[in-house]
Amino acid sequence: MERYIQAPISKEQIKELRAGDYVYITGTIYTARDAAHKRMYEALQKGEEIPFDLHDNIIYYLGPTPAREGQVIGSAGPTTSSRMDKYAPLLMQRGLSGMIGKGKRSPEVLSAIRENTCVYLAAVGGAGALLSKCIKESEVIAYEDLGTEAIRRLRVEKLPAIVIADCEGSNLYETAVEDYLNAHNNE
Amino acid sequence: MKKRSSEINCICKAGYRMRTINTNEIITALKEMCVEANLSLSPDMADRIHEAAEREDSELGSRILGQLCENMVIASEEQIPICQDTGMAIVFVKLGQEVHVEGMNLTDAINEGVRQGYTEGYLRKSVVNDPLIRTNTGDNTPAIIHYDIVPGDQLEIMIAPKGFGSENMSKLYMLKPADGIEGVKQAVIQTVRDAGPNACPPMVVGVGIGGDFEKSAILAKTALTRNTNEHSSLLHIAELEKELLVELNQLGIGPGGLGGKTTVLAVNIETYPTHIAGLPVAVNICCHVNRHVKRVL
Q1: Neighbour-count burial of B252, counting CB atoms closer than 10 A to its CB (0-12 exposed, 13-18 middle, 19+ buried)
Q2: Span B17-53, pLDDT tens digits
Q3: Which residues of chain B have pLDDT under 70?
Q4: A37 catalytic, yes or no?
Q5: How much is the ipTM here?
């Protein structure tokens, strides 16, 4: 079903989300991809602070293109999530509530999603120009030296995404293709 | 001394003059081509996506393909790259052997064009200088350049910015001759199945069969740059392209990997002679943002 959700996202809201839901996200989210994850992970392991409070927050796996004059951000679609699999469980244990990316996750990430009441969403890969229109503000808040991989705080309005893995353990990637083939073959 | 070397460069044995191309022209062309490739797809690729959007029978799949169509319009109207992964710059150069390149070193000129295109064209810098230390080079160089020396007095340059979501799902198989055409098909199908949602389906599949280890991979990448309206001129290979397209779309992976009849938009295969003991098969996956721009100087 279609849902409108607010970010940061409450645990109550996460519990209502089901794999296959089409959601529009409004509010504040953060970008981080490979290099920023490695840095945050290493900082947490050393007991150091990281650039933003993870609690109830959503990370968008994104490295945008630079904005032209008059634009908030450049092209802004999701990158492949599996490269963040090594780091994601620790971030969820420390409060992270949601991730937006694309592609399959490891069994460890899927378990952490269940155990920590989190959600994994996919945005449409390769639709970066379209998705950039939902981003109303963008500010680099940390790791500026990483360029496109720096951490950005974004204000988004109705950013479209699909719930892939919900906190009850359903995983759309495991069921969608089979469901399509079954429906198609029965026609 | 300088005068003498320029005479040698410009006049062949029989007094035939070489055609001179200045590297400034090459730099400008590369710069423009980097930007052009990232803002709009070639007409054949746009056609494939529009056709798929009309044909798709999965509700979610059809919605995703509709977004991809809308995305192409926004990208070209507002000058926002189609995809934020504006790729590593893969450059195919066909240098006519009657061309004299004047100015700077040709490889440096190509990299300078890429540098200007990516820094001045608001494209993402996605290259790290060492695969293990991983510091961003800041200007998307170096490019990966494939040179070919060909007859004639023209310089053909093709740029194919390659995103790594799909590149990471590519594979190379050293099959046995006994595996034959069925083995090739299974290799391609397995690669696409494994790529699934990670490679941003619908995909374009470039296959290189034959040669040796690295030749097959270059063939696969070259195959991605061929117009998707065209089939191989070899009948048995054209047949294989058509069969694979049907079989891959029967996998049901669909747009975004969320089910549907559109998993693959095209299968392009290139071949080369190989060793009596070998059957190399490289499968280079590209997402629907299959970019390439060619210019002849």
Answers
A1: buried
A2: 799 999 999 999 999 999 999 999 999 999 999 999 9
A3: 1-16
A4: yes
A5: 0.94
Residue of chain A whose Cα is closest to the Cα of B139: A147
Q: pLDDT tens digits for A31-68? A: 999 999 999 999 999 999 999 999 999 999 999 999 99
CB-nearest to B67 from A122, A127, A173 is A127
Q: Are residues B25 and B137 in the same domain?
A: yes
pLDDT band at A184 (very low <50, low <70, confident <90, very high): confident
Contacts of B276 (CB under 8 A, 6+ apart): B177
Q: Which residue among A74, A160, A179 sits closest to B259, beta carbon to beta carbon? A: A179
The model's pTM: 0.93
Domain of A111, in residue numbers: 2-185
- Verify that B158 and B168 share a domain, yes or no: no
Judgement on whether residues B247 and B279 belong to the same structural domain of the protein: yes
Chain B contact set for A102 (CB, 8 A): 165, 197-198, 200, 256
Q: Does A180 lie at the interface with B, CB-CB under 8 angstroms?
A: yes
Contact between B81 and A75 using a beta-carbon 8 Å cutoff:
yes
